[in-house]
Structure formats: structure tokens, C-alpha cells
Amino acid sequence: MYYRALSLLVAALFSFGERAALAQPAPPPTTRVLKKSVLPLVAPPLATSVHGFLLAPDGKLTKVTSADILKSQTAYIQALEKLQSPEQGKSYQALKDKIAGSGDLAEGDRVFANSVLIGKLLDTAKPDDEATIRARNQSLLSSYGKIAGKPVSADDLEAGVPPTWVKKLTFDKGDIISIIGFPDIFQRYSYSAQCKAAGVPVPPDWDGNLNSAVNSVSPNGWKNEGLLSTSYLTQPGQFPHRRTMVFSHASTTAPAGLCIALPIQQDTVGTPNVIDALGIICQGLSTTGDPAKSNSKACFWDNNGNVTLMVNAPYKISSNKFLAPPHLPDDNQCTDCHAGENAFITHPGSPIQKAKDDFNNSTTPNFTSQNNWYAPMVQPTWPTNPEAKAYPDGNGICGGCHNANDAGRLPNVSPLGLGGLPPRDNLYKFCAFLLPNVLTTVSNPATFDAGTMRSYNSAGYAADIQSLYNACKNLTPYYFPANTANWLKPVTPP
After folding, report:
1. Cβ neighbours of residue 195 under 8 Å, at least 6 residues apart?
2. pLDDT digit string, tens, across residues 402-420
């Protein structure tokens, strides 16, 4: 029996600009320096997000309150104001004075006003981490819409229409559009073309029906693979009404490859018609014909909860519903989890594994017939996924499945050795979320303490898993001020 605990993919870095950049080698692993950054200036209650879940500064998944949203917005406003020049601040101050002169505001009006102010500040201050702060701004606004029971519509924002729960304030169309950074959204259209040119299939427009029968296929070609029972992010009971569905799209014509979509609903009772996050990954097959060399690449499209999607509604991949590199924020780096031989984090018997197996059984060559280590087409500050030359475990038992001809090799958790990694190669989220949640029962998600291994693992795997944990402890988290001493503790076999 195969125990394919994790099967992932990450890769070489990619420069976004001229198409010729596709052939350029990855830059050396140097630490990124932000000359004008917001992140060092703030410590908001809601620091970042993973697949639609908002995280506290310690990296803990948290349930969002309107008070946390308002505090986070205030922290970003105060930091951005410090980065503006006096000339840049004139029109912003006029807008701020207009809001202040409107008298007492209801909570919804205050949240939306803050979101507009952050958008206007980003338009003028243009910090180095603009994409990250803009995405966080949208996540906060979207989260409040769910609390209010009336999700925010991206189409309305793009048209300059505020949410219905904004009762008192009025804004110019341009002020509202600043929330989403229009017209920057059009710059992402070339991403799909670059992916296709690099041998990666482009996903069809989204029309997956979450309530359709398993194995049914939508008109655009999205196959319902079923419910994902294993959570890679949360522990049982933390979000009791959450569900994650798996959809696949196989491309057997050039460029050949596989696309996996994961629509996530955080609360199927409170907001049953809302998709809280929808990530799509497509990976192409290597075409070198050499089992020792791979030119496979992968591309990423993500909603990440920045813009609310509705269940069973169609959305274009090139629309404002999806972010793609280089517009995905630095704290939403797909490749710090999706690392290794292939881009799909799979599990024995899971619908993701089934989709991958179905593709391999129907296509030659495929992901298991050759070296298919992938290089991600992402911005150059993201993890590079350097190909593992040797299996990174204690005695190689896991390598019986985790090899190029089966479940795929695991990533180099610590490719540069001890003492921490530069941000580009830091697989913090791989260590902090995937390993504890998939391989162990975590007693305390706040500190990532590892308890006992899941029942499908035997005592023989303990040394391998512990070796991965030890490598993880050497990483230095660069967005969360977490205490690494509390990350991952020795595994006790069952």
C-alpha cells in the first residue's frame, strides 16, 4: 500500500515583463530589500491570509471580527500616510476631511471608508509591497461583507458601486475603483499567454457546480472529483461548517497537463452561497524526452478571498475575480506550500490523488513516467523549488513512494543548510501548516506543536518525518514573528 502523504511542486523563478524573460535563469538567492515598505511599520490584528483564511501575526488561523478589521485598516492607513509626500497628500486629505465631516458613521460605512482611503493611499504612495497591502485591503473588505451577510461584489466595485451596507457615505467612481487598483488588473491578461507559451495548459473559465454529482463535468470541462476530507490548514472542529471541493481539468493536447481547482467554503451554514477562496494550479508535462532533465512549469490563479465568489456562478479566469502573478501578494506565495515534484498537494485516496492518477493512466508521457520537477512561473521573490538531488529524510523509507516514478519527490525544506534561509527559499507555510496537519494530530495549532502521527503511518516512518521537522526548525519566518522553539516537536509513534 502506498502512503503518499504529500505530493507537491514548486520551482524556478520567473520574471514578468517581456516574453524573453521566460528563458532567463533565476537570480541568486538574495534577501529582498524593500526601499519603501508598509509591512515593517504595522502589526495589525489580521496580518496575512492563506486560501481565504485570515491569520493573526503569530500565524494562527483566526475567526474574524469587525473590530479586528477596523483595527487592521487603521494600522495600514497610519503606515501609508507616513510614506506620502506633502504634494501627494493634498487630494487624499480632502477625501479624508469629507469623510470626517459626514458625522457619526455606522460600522459598515467606516469599514468601506477605510478601504477607500487605503486604496487612494496605495495609488499615490506606491510602496514596494503595494500588491500585498492591496490584496489585504480587499480581504478585509470582503471579510466584513461576509460578517454583514451581504458579500462584496467585485463587479460593483469596478463599476464604482459601493456595497448595499454602506448607508450614508457617497464616493466618486474613481475613489471606489482605487480599492481594486483598476486599471492594473488588465496587466494580468498576458500571464495566461506566457504560461501557454511555456508549455502550461491554461484553465478554462470557471463554471464548476459545487452541488453537482461526483464525476460530472461542467460545460467548460471542470470535473467534480468530490469532497476533500483532509484539511491541510485547519484542525478538526476549528471551522465546523467548512468544506473544500476538488475539480480537475485534464489537457491532453498541447500544451498537455493537469489543472486542479479547490473551491473552499468556510461556513456552509452562515454563508452557504459564498465561495471563500478558489485557487487553481496548472502544471505542464516535461518535453525534454530525457528522464534526467525536466522543463515542466506550473502556473497559479488564485481568488484567495480577496473578491467574493458566489456558488455555481461562472467567472472568467482573466477577470478581476482571480489574481495571478505578478499581482498575487508576497504573503500569498503559492510556492511556499506547493513544492516538490509536482504542484498538487495530494493524499492517498483523496480526490486530488484520483484526478492525478486518472490523468497518468490516460496520458503518455505523464507525471510518473519521467522526471517532471516543475519550475513555477511566479515573481522572483518567491521560493524557487530547487530540484532535490537526494531524498531529504532520515533513512529513505518515505522515498519508497516519494520518488519521480510514483508519488513524486518532496521538496528541499532547507536547501541552503542550517541557519535559516533568505525569504525566497523559505518554506515556512509548508512546515507550519502542511506537515503538522497532514502527518500529525496537532494539539495546539497556535504553536504548531506536533502530537502523534496519523493512524495510517507506522512507527517506521517516525525517523523520516522527524528529519523533515528538524529541517523546518532551521527556517526563519519572515512574515510572522513566531517562536521557532514551539513549531514542531518530536513525533511520538502510535
Report:
1. 202, 282, 297, 299, 377
2. 777 777 888 877 654 433 4
CB atoms within 10 A of CB 155: 11
Domain membership of residue 493 (yes or no) is no
Across 296-308, average pLDDT: 83
Give the pLDDT confidence of 311-369 residue by residue, as tens digits.
888 998 887 777 776 666 666 778 888 888 889 877 677 899 899 999 999 988 888 88
Neighbours of 292 (CB within 10 A): 8
In a domain, 102, yes or no: yes
Q: Beta 297-302 vs 375-376: how paired, if at all?
A: parallel
How far does Cα 101 stand from its chain's mean position?
A: 39
Distance CA 368, CA 409 (A): 11
Angle at 232 between CA 230 and CA 234, to 5 degrees: 95
Instruction: Please answer whether residues 10 and 340 qualify as being in contact, where contact means their C-beta atoms are separated by less than 8 angstroms.
Output: yes
Neighbours of 311 (CB within 10 A): 16
Let me know the angle formed at the C-alpha of 208 by 343 and 134, rounded to the nearest 5 degrees.
Answer: 65
Q: How many CB atoms lie within 10 A of CB 63?
A: 11
Distances (CA, A) of 275 to 155, 307, 327, 387, 397: 16, 10, 21, 34, 39
Query: What is the spatial distance between Cα 388 and Cα 424, in angstroms, rounded to a whole number?
Result: 16
Q: Which domain holds residue 51?
A: 41-185
Question: What's the CA gap between 347 and 375, in Å, rounded?
Answer: 22
Helix (H) or strand (E) holding 281: strand 277-284
- Whether 91 is in a domain gets the answer yes
Give the β-pairing of 243-251 and 223-227.
antiparallel
Measured CA to CA, the distance from residue 145 to residue 235 in angstroms comes to 25
Sign of CA dihedral 323, 329, 331, 337: positive
Residue 62 covered by a domain: yes
Q: Residue 67: pLDDT band by 50, 70, 90 thresholds?
A: very high
pTM of the predicted model as reported, rounded to 2 decimal places? 0.75
Closest CA to 51 of 348, 309, 374: 309
